[in-house]
Amino acid sequence: MIRAYKFLMRPTARQTVALGELLRDHCSLYNGALQERRDAYRHTSRTTVRYGMQSAQLKDIRAFDPERQGRWSFSSQQATLRRLDKAFAAFFRRVTAGRTPGYPRFRGVNWFDTVEFPKDGDGCRWDSTPHDRVTRVRFQGIGHVKVNQHRPVVGKVKTVSVKREGRKWFVVLTAEQDQPQPLPATGSMVGIDLGIASFLTDSGGVHIPNPRHARKAAAKLQAAQQALSRLPRCKAKNRTHNHQRAVEKVAALHGKVRRQRLDHAHKTALALVRAHDFIAHEDLKIRNMNKTPAPKPDPEVPGSFLPNGAAAKVALNRSIADAGWGEFLAILNAKAESAGREVMAVDPRNTSRRCPECGHTAKENRLTQEKFHCVSCGHQAHADKVGALNVLRAGLVRRNAPPA
């Protein structure tokens, strides 16, 4: 299996400048390759330029511009061209599926924050043996950079990436390792119901509160964004230090919220994986849940619209994004795979309306957000617990179903 590691780097002032130039030159290569594809399609009988053709031009590009392109790793530049090729492949896939295409866009220097080295030892070298108790990673054109390695890297390092987040620099490794030993069996099975009022409720009735990190930081974020908006708008090369500090403050607040959300998701998923052998959850279509309601034209007054609940939906979408369900489920599946646990996604329809005692399904069973009262048998319980029980039962049915 492949596992990723992310470590903070501590470059010197000279190395920080060189890392910035590394991102700048790879960004220039990405934008140049994108421009070539656009021009070829528009002006030369819609000719398609592919990765192989652009990769073959790298040798001439490096010879023509040795100061900006020739000093970096050839394989890292190939990885940048593959990145563009994947963006076009995704674009054509969305076109075929009838979704919003999203044509690949040019990247600004501040948006291009990652450079990948496809093979350890080709343009980079991860040194797992610390020198003077300090781990280092070497990059072509930059040198040996100190790394704050807070945990050991298990397995053989396959790829190495440089990533910039604000003013911090990180090295991201992917290592190939053997399948880890599964955790001891507990004999426990659980269903979980994700929500807004409570982040998670399991079939045993345990509620994990929703931390609402973004809501807690909303006041600080609003003040920082207002301070940024009051500064005069100008081109990037003419921006003042005050503007840069305001941008960094907003980015730092968003980064803190993201780290808090990740930390909560990791701890919650780890607790579930350690305690249960089988975990069932709802197969949520989060993208569909976040869609804005369609406008309702007023048939009596042309050009005007009827209320459609858009304001309330905006608040709900903000709460769904703040909960981070998709991120949590991805982490849960990754941890379960490493621990030898089984995770099952089930159809979420009517899970909170079906009575776990008699099986009667009706909209009237769920009186409020919290109260469940079956109109058929009179069973009463917390609505989220009822949903988790139904999710667990549906997961067990699907788990034990004979193969088609």
SSE layout and pairing:
Layout: E1 2-10, H1 13-43, H2 51-56, H3 58-64, H4 74-97, E2 114-117, E3 124-131, E4 134-139, E5 143-148, E6 156-165, E7 168-176, E8 189-194, E9 198-202, E10 207-209, H5 213-216, H6 218-229, H7 241-275, E11 278-282, H8 286-289, E12 296-297, E13 305-306, H9 310-323, H10 325-339, E14 342-346, E15 371-373, E16 380-382, H11 383-400
Parallel strand pairs: 8-11, 11-14
Antiparallel strand pairs: 1-5, 1-7, 2-6, 3-4, 4-5, 6-7, 8-9, 9-10, 12-13, 15-16
Write a concise synopsis of the structure shown.
The protein has 404 residues and is an alpha+beta fold.
How would you characterize the overall build of this protein?
- The chain is α+β, with helices and mostly antiparallel strands.
- The protein folds into 2 domains: 2-176, no CATH class; 189-214 and 256-400, no CATH class.
- Helix content is 42%, strand content 21%.
- The chain has helices spanning 13-43, 51-56, 58-64, 74-97, 213-216, 218-229, 241-275, 286-289, 310-323, 325-339, 383-400; strands at residues 2-10, 114-117, 124-131, 134-139, 143-148, 156-165, 168-176, 189-194, 198-202, 207-209, 278-282, 296-297, 305-306, 342-346, 371-373, 380-382.
- It has a 7-stranded antiparallel β-sheet with strand order 2-6-7-1-5-4-3. A 5-stranded mixed β-sheet has the order 10-9-8-11-14. Strands 12-13 form a two-stranded antiparallel ribbon.
- α6 (218-229) packs antiparallel against α7 and α7 (241-275) crosses α10.
- The two termini are 28 Å apart.
- The model has no long low-confidence stretch (mean pLDDT 90).
